[in-house]
Design a protein that fits this description.
- Helix content is 7%, strand content 12%.
- By secondary structure, it is low in regular secondary structure.
- The chain starts with 5 loop residues before the first helix and ends in a 32-residue tail after the last strand.
- It has a domain at 22-50.
- A hairpin with a 4-residue loop joins β1 and β2 (34-37).
- It has a two-stranded antiparallel ribbon.
- The chain is built from 1 helix and 2 strands, in the order αββ.
């Protein structure tokens, strides 16, 4: 059988989002699992005034999320 699964044929495919989300002036600390400010070494999430992505507004909605609303 060479036919693909119906979901693979009919499912909508979204374009890949290639935006650079790297915070300016920060490096990722693998041990801490967080971004650190290059100048101070402080965790970026704890720095006053630094605002990063903190909402789900950029999520791609799926059919399960769209329950008729």
């Amino acid at each position: 059988m060479d036919s693909a699964h119906p979901l693979l044929i009919r499912a909508h495919r979204y374009a890949r989002h290639e935006a650079d989300l790297h915070p300016a002036g920060c490096s990722y600390d693998d041990i801490a699992g967080a971004w650190r400010d290059d100048a101070t070494g402080e965790l970026a999430v704890e720095m006053p005034g630094r605002q990063g992505p903190h909402s789900k507004k950029m999520d791609v909605e799926t059919g399960e999320d769209q329950k008729g609303e």
